[in-house]
Design goal:
This is Putative small membrane protein. The protein is 95% helix and 0% strand. It is mainly alpha-helical.
Length: 74
């Protein structure tokens, strides 16, 4: 009777340890997903800022090219 009770106790402890570890993994995955979401939002904002910043610059480059073309006799 001792060995079955010992086996049952060890099995219960093993399942309890697995449950605790699975909860820890779940919380870490949630935290990682939140960090990825925040980083993605920051990257999108930076890309939008970059697009807005390149608008005036591209207009200036286009104007310079047009002026060079007119001065060159094309």
């Amino acid at each position: 009777m001792l060995w079955p009770m010992l086996a049952l106790t060890l099995a219960f402890c093993g399942i309890a340890v697995l449950a605790v570890l699975s909860v820890r993994v779940y919380t870490e995955v949630r935290r990682l997903a939140r960090q990825v979401s925040d980083s993605s939002a920051r990257i999108n904002r930076a890309a939008e800022d970059l697009e807005r910043a390149t608008g005036p610059l591209s207009a200036q480059v286009g104007a310079v090219h047009r002026d060079e073309g007119a001065a060159g006799g094309h």
